[in-house]
Amino acid sequence: MYRTIGRVGGRDAAPANRSAARREPPVEAMSARAEFASSAPVPRGSALRVVELGAEAVVAAALLGELGLVLANVLARTFLHHSFLWADETARMALAVLAFIGGAVAYRRREHAFVRIVLGRFPAPVERACLALADTLVLLIACVTGLAALEFIQSSWTERTPILQLPAALIALPLPIGMALIALFAIDHLRRAHGSAAWGAAGAVGSALAVALATQDDWLGWFAGDDAIIAALSLFLIAILAGVPVGFVLLLATACYLWIGGGGAMVVLPQTMVNGTGNFILLAVPFFILAGLVMERGGISVRLVRFIHTLVGHVRGGLLQVAVVSMYIVSGLSGSKPADVAAVGTVMRDELRERHGAAEGAAVLAAAAVMGETVPPSIAMLIVGSITNVSVAGLFIGGLIPAAVMALCLAALIYARARRANLPASPRAASNVMLRAGLGAILPLLMPAMLLAGILLGVATPTEVAAGAVIYGLALAVLVYRALDWRRFLGTVIDTASLTGVLLFIFAASSGFSWTLTVAYLPQRLVALLHAVGTGTDVFMAGSIALLVGVGVLLEGLPSLNVLAPLLLPIAGKLGLSELHYALVLIIAMGVGGFMPLAGVGFYVCCAIMRCDVESASRAMLPYLAVVLIGLLIVAFVPALALFLPHYFGFRG
Question: What number of other Cβ atoms are within 10 A of residue 210's Cβ?
């Protein structure tokens, strides 16, 4: 048994990983194909294919160029005692390219997440009509945002960047380019995938918009006061349940409020989007994703799983226990939960299906992914650190014990269920097998150790540590394991840019939506609601968990943090709660929503990897979901679990 993990046809880890990579599409693509109807492939020599390849080349160049610049800056600071002062300006440009042109590439590849909890229950003709309507609304949103972006660029062209003295509007230039690409791809998809339904959807949307514009003087007065935000939130809920991708729903709701509420000119929309992607720390997001995909495709994760199997595979429920521990360790190498699930799931799928069934395997992967949300490096932690005053390093070190508590809860449930079912335990691994697997895992295990050490010792920023993780992973995958060639590396870079485009596009869109909620005085209303139900911290904590879980289902997790964390964290601080502890609770609650059975986008990823139907996996998930919620409550109401390590290392908050 111990020799089967990570082997295909009796060959060792690196060939096994190459074989798995040939069989499996990227996890992001799998989730998209499982959730969204794809059109026929574009002919290789067509003009649209050339445009698509050009966009992919641009985002790949932006990612690799910024990676090289960050590493060069580290070397210059270390050996020449000199830093590139203009690095922040180039970083903002690279982030804009990844967010907006990368978002267009992701849309072309059908990788933008959307909610299908309602859509999947419609009859097939209604579902097809909703999907056609979704692409039509994407086309409309892209046109509105692109035109507003051109106006924003024109109005800010005379402003200059502080160091390079370039037009500041250049940073916003990828936005209208990305919107033009999205509009082009949406038109092509409507034509190729929806047929006559596209004409019906376009006619309905166009007619409704024309009537609204022609009669706006008559009805705009109806939306005075709170009616505008109520209408925007209602449109948000309808659009997201109808299958419009999450990022575009956020833009639609923001544009609606700006139009009918008079809260600002439409140029506010592109302004908030560009500002939302301007934080240097966000560069750590694509770097950690790239490190995770290199780990998955370069023979690194399979060695970790094999070693963990020799350590805990003999415990009752052995393979499920291995999955939980593996997710904890692998989460320390990549900040992306889809990449983590793919890294563990593709290695263990066959054994899990044989011993426990595909549905049980998917359920454990989903529950373990929620647990891994607070294992550093976590993209959710980077997001929270970029939009609040909470220390990213404090979040990194503070998340270790809460994740361990939830892992122990899951392990206890797996053990109890295996014992009740009288499942036989596997024999303990022989010492020589354990030693050989341990030696093979030494180099991969050094990666999380270096990540934490670099941040805690103040040697490098999270972005620089992430860049170093990419180089270390490449060194292992290319030079040591010889599992990653040049062509597969370029494919990995493009997959990274596409997934980064999804995340940063949603992040930019949710920045505008968050601005809308702030202008509509939502923080003050939350405070008033809190006083109405009671001012106790326990009530506030429980209400926050329920809110993040619910919104995490609708907004695919990370956008819920971007929208709600800046609103809730100041309230928590005023109530006397530790903002660091409260932020970790929010991150876990967001993860529960993102992997909620039947609803969370992450749950569909787990089902796609395990090749099982969603309904059976949802039933299998219920006991694990209950235990995850218990673990979340333990972390929420025992603050010492989250604060012990940060306080020990001198972090406060």
Answer: 10
pTM score = 0.82
Burial class (CB in 10 A: 0-12, 13-18, 19+), 607: buried
Helix, coil or strand: residue 7: coil
Residue 7 included in any domain:
no
The contacts of residue 17 (CB under 8 Å, 6+ apart) are: 6, 296, 297, 298, 299, 301, 302, 483
Residues 363 and 242 in one domain: no
Q: Which two tokens stand for residue 90?
A: 């180039």
Peptide bond connecting 377 to the previous residue in cis, omega within 30 degrees of 0: yes
Structure tokens at 240: 């997201």
Place of tokens 């370029």: 490
137 and 193 fall within a common domain? yes
Q: Which residue has the higher pLDDT, 363 or 528?
A: 363
Q: In this structure, is residue 189 part of a structural domain?
A: yes
CA-wise closest residue to 349 among 607, 594, 551, 114? 607
If asked whether residues 308 and 440 sit together in one domain, one would say: yes
Of 140, 115, 112, residue with least CA distance to 237: 115
Residue type, 442: I
Domain that holds residue 168: 43-278
DSSP result, 407-452: HHHHHHHHHHHHHHTTPPPPPPPPHHHHHHHHHHHHHHHHHHHHHH
The string of pLDDT tens digits covering residues 344-398 is: 887 788 888 888 888 998 999 999 999 988 888 788 888 888 888 888 889 989 9
- C-alpha closest to that of 401 among 551, 584, 579: 584
